[in-house]
């Protein structure tokens, strides 16, 4: 097991809020954490930050887990629920009180609002300064209190970030934040720190929208005398136009990409390259990514989503896939996209035809379009171009071909000899005959090679389709 500088095994985590699907940005954050841990023999943990009871749903948690599974990101141990750990969070807040790094604040909502209104009237934005920070316990009233952190009022907090460099935050800009509300519930800021500490997280790799949180969270680590993790705040993903990613740019949820027919390996490769680089490497396997991935390679500028690049990489991954594994993933796509499942016979033919199907297909819908000759049943429905290709002359040649094919031994060499011979007899090159043959076999003029199709569907089916088209 590889160690980080502190000599501890690497532990990373992904901690989404279950308020919706797994966003593409969240998918990439999870992937970076997974790659970093897996490449160092460490652990990748998963925590669901479900403290917001109004917005958290079990459906959203299930969608997040499905998205991670589709991306192939396996986590270690059980999924941790932040909400279920609230007693432990409260215990730490009371420990901070005992250590003198936090205090009881009896200020009411009305008093805090009055303080802010008065500051606004003076034209200044003032942080709320609780009168209870240094109060004598003898003066404490008998009513509920919040626990506030005794934040340093002067000096600065320095975040040593692996991506952003040194980030300095002036302490006078941070207030004494509440760690435990007066109703006894912990705040998000406290919960995150306690969970990360208890889970042994050594590296916090997350979106740079959490950069200001890091300063506040670092104060809690210091208040408890705990080791601060290595920070790495990664830039968000932007759309192709350079603006923050939103619905208008297209799909936002990881599962939407599965339904669109992108293979998981291509998606992983693309997301790894989105904002991280290793020399000029564009196409690589997950094994290579684990070996190469580091925090130094993450850029500071937001990465832009580029569908052309995604499709290009997906095409390369489809072509490089093992045939049986690709068929398995194609079937998972059919289920996700609510498309009809393959029959046993179709599955067998798909596997047989996969070597030619997977060349130059960038997505599963493209691969299925090429495999149409396998999934159609006779009589083969034809598109307009296919109807055009089957003119009187072509139909005549197909009629003449069928008896020759009935006695042929079914190898590529024999079929080549028969087809090119028939074309030559009619004073044409094979190219001219290919269009009507494709029309008869696939119902399209664009399809895999005529020989590939004939060898996959076999002699009887080929002859039957040619006879249908010649009729």
From TrEMBL:
CDD domains on file: GluRS_core (cd00808)
Motif ('HIGH' region): 16-26
Annotated ATP binding sites: 247
EC class (word): ligase
Residue ranges constituting the Glutamyl/glutaminyl-tRNA synthetase class Ib catalytic domain according to the UniProt record: 10-311
Enzyme nomenclature, EC number: 6.1.1.17
GO biological process terms held by the UniProt record: glutamyl-tRNA aminoacylation
Sequence motif 'KMSKS' region, location on chain: 244-248
Catalytic activity: tRNA(Glu) + L-glutamate + ATP = L-glutamyl-tRNA(Glu) + AMP + diphosphate
Ranges where the Aminoacyl-tRNA synthetase class I anticodon-binding domain occurs: 331-469
HAMAP family assigned: Glu_tRNA_synth_type1
Similarity remark: Belongs to the class-I aminoacyl-tRNA synthetase family. Glutamate--tRNA ligase type 1 subfamily.
PANTHER family: GLUTAMATE--TRNA LIGASE (PTHR43311), GLUTAMATE--TRNA LIGASE, MITOCHONDRIAL-RELATED (PTHR43311:SF2)
Protein name: Glutamate--tRNA ligase
Originating species: Gemmobacter aquaticus
